[in-house]
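Example complex used in Figure S2.
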Amino acid sequence: MGKTLAEKILSLKSHSEAEAGDVVIADVDLAFVQDTTGPLTIRQFKESAFKALAKPPQTVIFLDHAAPSPAQQLSNDHILLRSFAKETGCRIYEVGDGICHQLVAENFANPGDIIVGADSHTVTAGALGAFATGMGSSDVAVALALGKTWFRVPESFLIELKGVFTRGVYAKDLILYLIGQIGADGATYKALEFGGDALAQITISQRLTIANMAVEAGAKVGLFPADKITQDFLTEYGRGGNYKPLYPDAEANYERVITVNIVQLEPMLSLPHAVDNVRPVAQVKGVRIQQAFIGTCTNGRLEDLAVAAQILKGEKRHPGTRLLIAPASRQVLIRAIEKGYIRSLIEAGAAILPPGCAACLGLHQGVLGDGEVCLSTANRNFKGRMGTPEAIVYLASPATAAASAIRGEITDPREFT
Amino acid sequence: MMPDLMLKGKVIKLGDNISTDDIIPGRFAHLRSNLPELARHVLEDAVPGFASKAKSGDFIVAGKNFGLGSSREHAPVVIKMSGVGAILARSAARIFFRNAINQGLPVLLCDTDKISDGDELEINLTDGTIVNLTSRITLSCSKMPPIMSAILKEGGLIPYIQKHRGFKL
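Predicted assembly (586 residues):
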């Protein structure tokens, strides 16, 4: 019997022949927390009476969700996290360095790694072939101490991608379409494994967008094979030596196979208040928006800012629409400055926020008021997600957000590209 | 602390897709290191006044995909602090499910369409049977992996780890 990607990685890391449905104890290559889950993780770690981290250099704290801190309580949480880093020798990324998932992709994730993070979008690193999944504070606290955790080996869905993206259609549109097809709980406890001819043209930036939202269909991981594109990315980020090819076996067993012909896709949107409430942008055109937000671990990368800058260059945001842009990392921001994207965006009326999660989770930097509508490039639009429960959030690609910021209403980006 | 194996209480019925933002939204992130204060806001957007409405031993009974969204373990923490003795749902999101068990809060997956708001239930955690004392219907819930039952039996992951110093399969 052949193995899926999930079975391959979990077999290797549990030193056993793992099959879907088995429960295994596996080695953890990287464990991390962010600033809103880290304090509870530290309290649980201390309560469990462990003294030391199993692998300090492979343990990371990211200050990204409330960065810079908007409240004294969160400032005190940051103090606790910094002192834990000092005590234990783990790594810490400071305010302004960027979003945990982007920094994991830039600095840590390798094909075949197991990564656990106290953040649901830890799945993002599946783009690089890492079995990366979100867990709560207690699970991560124990993983920090033991360097291991337990997993139920998931059954896999094969998502076979065919064709190429047409003008105005991006990875975000693909993953929104797919979540609309699968449903918000359609892949609960499962692995989404991406394959097909289209992969040869899907960049790591796009793969990160796709893997990031696997959890919005309930999935435990969103896994890409590791190929030449992965190798080039790792080489660019100075860890080409960590590359190893990783593919599922030809006879692997999939619970479900879903084929998506990318050529047939059009710009898509998630409507309030559910990520799987997906429609083509063309059907929702004309809804007034007070805020457009481009950024997050889903869509705050250089390619995303390039698309936004291309559409916004020489244009102006609508006077009734605020335009907020948060690069996913310090490096993304530097490159976007070098390429002139930031200037185009600022001239178009954007407010540039520091690298971090920014407005995504409603705790600072663009909190919505009653009745306000935001078009966001993030990954969640639940009631209350970005501020008051009386606010409304639509999710779309950076191109759709940029086009909509210009018109002040939901706009098909193909009118600008 | 070991949880009671027989639970009895009244049902607070909720719908499908109760997210972690419904349970405890990001706007209260500044209260996460002050759990008693955080717990005052549990589920307030979904059920106004939930924290004062919930009585010790009550059960949350929901539809599908309970707890979808964030990995914030504060979600099951504040539900447990409200006095809720167990959550019953048709399905639960993966991270929430694991977090709740890690906090010693039972999550039982069963056909919750057969349970109404205000019903009185008796739950046997040992064999997973649920007797609806109001409608006199007996339900059974799906089994969790043995490692999760073992964690729940110890009252959560931290007490389990304090005892075993590692995972036992």
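Chain B has one domain: 6-163. Chain B touches chain A through 43 residues (CB under 8 Å).
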